Amino acid sequence: MFEIIKNTLTDNALLGAIFSSISIILLGFMLRKKEMINATAAKMLTKIVLTVALPALAFTSFMKDLNEEQLKQGMSILVWGFALYIILIPITKIMFAKVKGDKQDVYRILTIFGSTTFFGTPIVQAVYGSTGAMFANIFNIPYRVFLYSYAYVKMSGTKMDKDNLKKNMKEIFLNPIILATFTGLLIWMFQDYLPQVIVGSGEEAKQVAILRIDQTVPWLYKPLTYLQSLASPLAWLAIGATLAEVPFKKAVVQKDAWGYSLVKVLAIPTINLVLLVVLSITGILPVAYEGVATTVIMMATPTATVAAAYAISFDREAVFTSNCSLLSTVVAVVATPIWLVVLELTKNFGIF
What is d(CA 320, CA 271) in angstroms, rounded to the nearest whole number? Predict the structure, then answer.
């Protein structure tokens, strides 16, 4: 047991990912504090990550040969994503049963929906590479479906009528990240059925799908690799810069916001992990280590930006939501390295 813990805590790849995320977040914090980047620059960083870097990451993560085991794992994660959000709806109702009125709805939505895209995906990609990024983007499909439907209805207090449904469907399926995810996913899944071309020559010649641009049009694919490599560092810089803008003094004295943050970053991913252990042991829905780790990190993320925007725009505990967003981000920055170590231990102990 000691050797397993020692090897986990001295894993250079793991330590490098942890140190990189924390140090670049702190760099963004210091740059903003010293006014080397202003509020506008921080927002632009966020926009670049969401509209350029993360879509590139989503697409390139699927540019690989079809692997039956990865396909099976990807579909398991997709199923689990939908199941998990359905499970969390009644669980959070029980967790916050003592909270009354609008605040209970706010608690529940902020707890169910984390910043999986902006905070979670870059960390998963940094630690688990293209396979983790692929699983993260698959997991984000049900996340966005529930975020733009269930979360919107609960926070707005309105019914999902025809106009709202149409608007939210656009938000789900015309989002650049979702478009890139579906495009890459479909190419990856059906590459054996697409028109084939020969690439390479001699002994290195092989047949690939024409839409595998990493092989057929490498000069077109290369810019996407540069853009996807920006996702993690730019996201971490933006997180640090955003933290620097929020007044800590008012937020840190709000005990319920601290309570929410601990539930969001510690309790929810623990529920996710325990359920996946049970499902894997019983054989109901076996998920490999990379898939489990991806979902845990995604659920250990701070308040989702869209969920917070719902609360503020619909005047549902706006101040409380802002404090929750700040404190949960701080807690997530501290807790994520711990979760990475815990997950590595589960792998080394043979749980997954």
Answer: 24
User: Measured in whole angstroms, how far is the alpha carbon of residue 291 from the centre of its chain?
Assistant: 12
Question: In terms of C-beta distances under 8 Å and separation of at least 24 residues, what long-range contacts does 9-12 make, across chains too?
Answer: 9/341, 11/344
Per-residue pLDDT tens for 65-110? 988 899 999 999 999 999 999 999 999 999 999 988 778 999 999 9
List all residues 6 or more positions away from 228 whose beta carbon is below 8 Å from its beta carbon: 53, 56, 57, 59, 60, 61, 125
Structure tokens at 214: 């990493």
Inter-residue contact 287 to 276 (CB < 8 Å): yes
Q: Name the token pair of 254.
A: 């709000």
What is the three-state SS of the chain?
A: CHHHHHHHHCCHHHHHHHHHHHHHHHHHHHHHHCCCCCHHHHHHHHHHHHHHHHHHHHHHCCCCCCCHHHHHHHHHHHHHHHHHHHHHHHHHHHHCCCCCCHHHHHHHHHHHCECHHHHHHHHHHHHHHHHHHHHHHHHHHHHHHHHHHHHHHHHHCCCCCHHHHHHHHHHHHCCHHHHHHHHHHHHHHCHHHCCEEEECCHHHCEEEECCCHHHHCHHHHHHHHHHHHCHHHHHHHHHHHHHHHCCHHHHHCCHHHHHHHHHHHHHHHHHHHHHHHHHHHHCCCCCCHHHHHHHHHHHCCCECHHHHHHHHHCCCCHHHHHHHHHHHHHHHHHHHHHHHHHHHHHHHCCCC
Closest CA to 212 of 230, 225, 199: 199
Distance CA 302, CA 220 (A): 35
Q: Report the predicted TM-score, pTM, of the whole model to 2 decimal places.
A: 0.86
For 159, phi then psi, to 5°, come to: -80, 155
What digits encode the pLDDT tens for the residues 233-274?
A: 988 888 888 888 777 777 677 788 899 999 999 999 999 999
